[in-house]
Design goal:
By secondary structure, this protein is mostly helical. 92% of the residues lie in helices and 0% in strands.
């Protein structure tokens, strides 16, 4: 009986370790993604968000 309880504890510890490992992997991916956005914000941004402003600017220049 003592052997089965100890093996259950190791199984529980393995499950907890795998769960924590997955959490750290997700956290690491999020940190890398945030640093990429901070270092190069224009590449990660969809092109439509800033080409619209450029088109509006050229349109304003055409009016002026």
């Amino acid at each position: 009986k003592h052997l089965s309880s100890s093996s259950f504890l190791t199984l529980e510890a393995k499950a907890a370790f795998i769960f924590v490992l997955i959490l750290f992997l997700v956290l690491g991916l999020l940190i890398v993604r945030c640093f990429r956005i901070l270092l190069d914000p224009y590449r990660s941004m969809p092109s439509s968000t800033w080409t619209d402003y450029m088109e509006k600017d050229t349109f304003d220049y055409r009016i002026a």
